[in-house]
Each structure stands twice: as structure tokens, then as C-alpha cells.
Amino acid sequence: MSMLEWLLQVVLLALLGAAIPFALRLERSLREIRRDRSAMEGSAQGLSEAARMADAAMVRLRASAELAGRQVAERTAAAEPLRDDLRYLIERAETLADRLEGLVRAGRPLANEAPRAAEQPLQSQAERDLMRALALGAGKAGR
Length: 143
Hints:
Blueprint: H1 3-112, H2 114-118, H3 125-142
């Protein structure tokens, strides 16, 4: 072998020796990338499972919301006649209250004559109730 061949082989050995640390670093990096890829695949599977579970939860939530909406609509529909009945009763009560107020005002002058009327026995429970209401009204008016 000639000197040139020996020199080329030494240069080649030096280059191979310099390449070994780079090859080791490259191998470690590739190992980490493979490990990270498997972890990423596991994460992707976990993410897809979470997305599937979220979709299922949204379907259940929609079904619950629709059921609740139907129940509210049914109860509202059932409450409508009751609301109308209550409005009618309130109107009737206001009318009766106005009539009663008019009777009380008309009966106040008679309340002053109540002691004379008390001498006569009252005929019915309604008369006794009216006299009691008049007496209470006159007592409150005097205060």
C-alpha cells in the first residue's frame, strides 16, 4: 500500500470517528421521536374517545332539553284555563267588593241607629253578620 492509500484510509477513519457521535445523537433523537409518536398516538386515541363521549353527552343533553321543553309546554297549556278562571274570579271579586263597599257606606248612617235596632231580635244569620260588620266599620271610623 502506498502512502497515499494510507493517508486516505486515515482520513476516512477520522471522518468515520467524527461521524459516530453524530450517529449516536441521531439514533437517540430517533428513539425519542418514536417514543413521542407512540405517546402522541395514545393521546390522539384519548382525544378521539373524549370527542366521541362529548358527542354522546350532547345527544343526551339535547334529548333532555327537548323533553323539558315539551313538559313546560304541556304545563303551560294546562295552566292557561286556570289563569282564565282566576282572571274571571278576580273580576267577580272586584265587582262584589265594590258592591259591598257601597253597602257599607250606605249602612254607616244606620250604624248610629244600631242600638235601637239591637232591641229588636235579628231574623237571620246574614242580618247578624251585617250588623257585626257595620259595628266594626263604625268602630274603625271612630278611631
